Design the sequence.
């Protein structure tokens, strides 16, 4: 991927964001729409000047803020007045105390589901895109773009519409009609590419390097360092909703691995700021067996992640060559967690289990985390006596096909009581 | 419909709910699972002993409550500790300041969209079902039931699952698979009835009168007086989110008409309690042209509503014989509002308009309210210089078919820059 050269932005108002720093060599760069280190090509991430002072005051300031991710604006690369700007105000979704599910799984230490299906376009992508929108505004971009096969396309289209930016989203031309409608309804440009998702990505990289791409912010490419920070808000919300307390165990899905690494970053920031007590937590990564390169590497004791060709119903997690895979391995090992996978049948069973016990209809990624939670408890790896938070990052309405073949009426009857009695449901 | 005889419940803890009272003759009855007046067969609704005292204290108590409808527990027929019980915690959804839409429609007085797609099962039905669940618990019911063709089935299934109640939901046997999946995934019983929706309703009435139906709470039949009160929370939230202020104008969809009447009830309660200033507001009802018996009666100056056979894409509003139609007419006329309708093409246009301007993807019912808002502004009926709130009561993901035929990619291209240039989107 080409490294874009950009003018230094000296008067950017991106709150506490101080610089970009390379995750590999530590080299620092001014804030700009770049994503790879000029020195070593490592990935760039945001370095902060975080607020100092009394944690109690910061807690109160956050609690008095809006019911969205913007309550954490002092910890995010966004301007202080971000909540006044037109955006989708995602986040502050429900943390469901899942007592029914806990009973089924034998968890006694408190089980919670962080349910991100409540976001505006019903996936956690609204969090990351909202941060990318602020970066796009700061850099003067006028078009918001991405490559996508699902959740991200809708999140970008919706966010751009509300922010008054043009959007141009690229998808493989043969996506299911439902996904196409969700991506197109917000009125931006939607371009079908004759090719695979890899072809779409290659085309986008070409576009960024071309004069046509000037003024374009690709949320998950040249705005990626900003975009990725949105996932930190999952960590902040979980801890605040637990009463400013770290959970003992978290189960997080892995696609690129970015979300898991940023949740870890968010937890460490809360500790550093004194907002939560400093004590150990374990992070567990969850993959689908049909795309489990990180789980494979974890189990084999490897530090490198060998790419795979995805084949799973959990399409939102189907990244065969996850960029943040090695960092995920580090975090799972450092915190005493693990990375595990479940097969498609176990994913479907877990979606139904969560729906039946808690009334939460998760997308396949939620089936992966709940399924992995069950598997890790049965294997004695996840401790059922500790407080555990499981992420559901999307909405079952978007992956109906996964459960449709095995989900239907208990009975079909004629409209009379005798027929109902015969069905054995009375 | 048969009037169920029930034991008097003297030790019910349903908060400020004091009795059932007949909306026609005013006769009072003890709280119980009954829905029609023994004296005149009029509909029963909840009468309250509402809290007295300093409005400022009540406001503070509400503001310190949970981020759900339970912050208004002192004004609802639910126990004081309702937030501690397992339920879906619906409500406190976003009130979107729709400045982009306002510009398109020429509204200068402030335009807001109350977006109920953020509820747990993505429609306002979660509000009403949550209240019905508390009534079911109070009356010792063990099965939660309803007849439904869509949103309600999922809301009942999910709420029952979380509450630990059995659910048994009745639907026409030939519903689209997507709706069946959404209704069945929560693991309760789902029964397809060989017949029309009317046949389903007749069967349910029979079931309530039969010994089989003992212990069954039909949310929109024998629990209807409780259930309906859930819509008051829309009024409460809108006013609180406006800074404890009444909007000047509200645009509300009409199916049975219950929601509109309860929003009016909620606004009057807030005035009576001193929580908002007592000043005029206008309520506008919105219907689809293919099912607009109330709009017809309003325009013709009639007090009675003549039933129609529905034929519209707005299926969640397709009630041809709306029970609360006459009350809706009263309210529209008393407040100086109106009842208007839009055709299917206008509904689709309005869905796209809202998506394109605010990033909110509404179900067809939201297209009806936005479309009617536009029509009423153009007709000079709705005053664009006043604060206006438009309701979106459901989610576009559930009615994809409405927009699918006219929503697709801007272009299909080959994966190279020349092909992109040729498409004219660069």
Sequence:
């Amino acid at each position: 991927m080409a490294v874009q050269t950009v003018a230094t932005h000296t008067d950017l108002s991106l709150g506490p964001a101080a610089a970009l720093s390379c995750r590999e060599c530590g080299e620092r760069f001014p804030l700009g729409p770049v994503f790879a280190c000029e020195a070593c090509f490592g990935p760039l991430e945001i370095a902060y000047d975080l607020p100092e002072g009394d944690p109690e005051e910061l807690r109160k300031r956050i609690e008095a803020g809006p019911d969205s991710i913007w309550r954490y604006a002092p910890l995010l690369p966004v301007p202080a007045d971000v909540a006044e700007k037109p955006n989708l105000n995602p986040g502050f979704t429900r943390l469901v105390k899942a007592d029914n599910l806990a009973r089924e799984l034998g968890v006694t230490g408190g089980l919670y589901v962080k349910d991100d299906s409540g976001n505006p376009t019903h996936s956690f992508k609204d969090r990351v895109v909202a941060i990318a929108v602020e970066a796009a505004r700061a850099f003067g971009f006028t078009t918001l773009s991405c490559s996508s096969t699902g959740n991200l396309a809708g999140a970008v289209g919706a966010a751009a519409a509300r922010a008054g930016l043009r959007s141009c989203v690229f998808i493989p031309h043969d996506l299911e009609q439902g996904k196409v409608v969700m991506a197109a309804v917000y009125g931006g440009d939607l371009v079908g590419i004759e090719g695979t998702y890899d072809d779409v990505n290659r085309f986008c990289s070409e576009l960024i390097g071309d004069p046509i791409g000037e003024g374009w912010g690709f949320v998950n490419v040249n705005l990626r360092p900003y975009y990725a920070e949105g996932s930190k808000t999952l960590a902040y919300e979980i801890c605040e909703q637990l009463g400013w307390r770290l959970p003992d165990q978290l189960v997080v899905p892995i696609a690129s691995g970015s979300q898991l690494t940023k949740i870890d970053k968010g937890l460490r920031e809360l500790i550093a700021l004194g907002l939560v007590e400093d004590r150990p937590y374990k992070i567990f990564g969850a993959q689908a067996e049909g795309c489990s390169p990180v789980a494979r590497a974890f189990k084999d004791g490897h530090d490198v992640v060998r790419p795979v060709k995805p084949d799973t119903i959990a399409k939102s997690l189907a990244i065969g060559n996850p960029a943040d895979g090695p960092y995920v391995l580090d975090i799972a090992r450092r915190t005493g967690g693990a990375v595990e996978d479940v097969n498609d049948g176990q994913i479907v069973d877990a979606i139904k289990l969560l729906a039946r016990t808690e009334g939460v209809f998760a997308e396949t990624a939620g089936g992966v985390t709940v399924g992995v939670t069950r598997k890790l408890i049965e294997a004695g790896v996840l401790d059922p006596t500790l407080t555990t938070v499981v992420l559901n990052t999307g909405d079952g309405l978007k992956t109906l096909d996964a459960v449709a073949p095995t989900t239907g009426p208990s009975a079909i009857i004629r409209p009379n009581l005798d027929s109902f009695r015969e069905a054995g449901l009375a």
